[in-house]
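New to this. Comment on this protein:
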Amino acid sequence: MSSFAQFLARLRAAYAATASQPIPARRRQAAAPGKGLAAALDSSRIAAVALFMATVAAIVLVSFVGVTNRTLSILPNQVASVRIVAAVPFSYESKVKTEEARVRLAERVPPVYRVDPAPLRRFELHLNELVASLAPYPGLDPAQRASFLAENTALYNARGPYRASPEDVALFAAADVASAKLADLGLGILRTLHSQGITAPDDLGGDKNAATLKLLQIVRPDGAVSARPVDTIEDALTYLRVTLAAEEPDRSRAAALYRIFRDGVRPNLVFDREASRAREAEAVRDVRPVLVSVERGQSLIEPDTRVSLEQFEMLEAHRRALAENTSPLDETTRLAGRILLVLAMLAASLIYIRLEDPETLQSNSRLALLALVVVVNLALVRGTYSLGSLDYFLENSAAASLLPYMAPVLIAPIIVALLIDAGSAIFMALFLSIFTSVIWGGRLDLLVLEFLATLVAVHGVNHTRRRNRILRAALHAGLTLAVGVVLLGLAERLPLPAVLKQTAAGLAAALLCGVLVVGLLPFLENLFKRTTDITLLELTDYNHPLLRLMQMEAPGTYHHSLVVAQLSENAAAAIGANPLLARVCALFHDIGKTAKPHYFTENQHDGDNPHDDANPSLSALVIKAHVKDGVDLAIRHKLPRPVIDVIQQHHGTTLIRYFYQRALQALRRKPDTNSPLPPLLGVSSDPADSDRSAPALPDQTYRYDGPRPRFKESAIIHLADAIEAAARSLPKVTPQHLDEIIDQIVRERMADGQLDESPLTFAELTRIKTSFQHTLVNMLHGRVAYPAAKA
């Protein structure tokens, strides 16, 4: 027995068991998706109000409760964005003020100098060499003496900055006791001057104003420091002139000696840095730490002012005082104000959704998605903020300054852009940026930078179809944040290492957000029954198991699905629907035919039609079964919810007209009591009924169970499926014929009420028909007949 005969026998047995039961006036349709508790909750206003209140409570709890300026990260030299006042009275030892007091005291400690003997020794050596070089002078011929003096004088002047003349040098040329006494006289006076100390303003090396003093701190040979008078170069030269004039009665000789020995008057006081530092350290050793007391309510930092080191130290002391103070603060008034702020922001969000995306406002599941990602994202931001209360960040302000830029603000906007739309994501970005700014003390710069970065991320993932684009968008957002941080740091004159660390923190946080979104996206799609273009694009792979099954088991149905997919994609693009969703749903809409492919005309290639010998009602049941089989396959392979919906809705509740007409023809004929086939389902076997001139046949058996198309893409596929099949039956394909059949099918479906539940407008239907006609003309075009090849 053939497989078809076995199948027909089973159908007859099933009919025999139910033939005697009365047929209800209207057959109950299969439960459409959206029925039950989940659908009731999705549309319940009570659930929406409860969701709103829970969201308000969660945002207030996450964003405000326990948030203080204790962990507010501010760096020295940074412009403060908010006023910070002391929440508790406290006292602290100010290292900054103590250091300033020590610096002031150290500045009042006079510098210490030491006497350098090198200038006098050098002059004495050169003078002795000059005197020794003049020893041959008495024995020279008078004619040679002048050149001899000039030559030795030039050599002497070249040894140092000396200005002796040959006439003055001649005083030492006699090489007698008188000449030696003159040299000893001058050197003795220089020794006295150098031992006292000679100063010059440009050679002190310490406080140049000390040159005007008559008393300097001098290191004695025993290492002790004492204050004693010193001479300036002018004083020393005066002393030299007067002393030589007193010791040498001959004025010309005294003048000559002065001109020679004046070159030995050189500054010989050198600034002793080590001794000066020791004196300063000794002076500041006894400075007591400066104790600063701050009253409660006293302003610590004013807004729009650059934070000084003293203010920064006071803020750090305030943080430590808050950490040590465990008494609870009364925040009732501030909490009420924050609740009002959250209510205002959520009300603005609802108004925006009502204007731009009313479909979301009518779906509690979408609202729950928005609420969940907002609350979770704010919780992550709050968690980042709470890290600032750790001892490490309290003690390391440079590390604490990185936390605002590590806040993962990008997660929720990117998810909303992928699962809902870009408009809602932009509003979400603003919402999160505002509350992130509020958490960090109302920092306007942080609000602007985070909002700009999230806008870049939303733009990058808008209509994206690949997961790597999410990471690329996060990278671009991180680079945007990094550039903003660099510009802000340069404007505030922050240290370059701190700016570079903040830049790296922002970039790393953005990339981490991208990785988290890629990992969370499949879970969120499944949880909220949302499908992204990324998942849809992955389903267009022709190596998908269901598509491969269709290619092997039902190649005609597979080709039909390809044509319907092309028709639907072009039509969806024409009316602004989702072309990718339409294409994917069309590819899978007939996968149920793979269960019994030979029962469908497009897969019958050998001319054998199993329906020829079957009861029309049984054939109708087989045809309708491909919808249920398709849903089962889709669920088994975990296809997205929209694809399952299209499989159920792509025929709506249309009439299987061919078998219905066959049933009517059989009804008009007199029943054959000898026929092995039982009476038709839905047809009375009473002989009296056969006498009616216009027999009536209920059509419930011959209609698909539905439901009717309920969204634009489903309605487009519903029409494309029928039009593609009808277009293939045309003997000649012309634009006029296509227009007629397209218009006829659309009018019939509208008259039958198949489009009553879809959101399509008449204008969109017109554009859909135009798109169908254009696509079919290009698909079903004819070709020129090639002449046969000559033998």
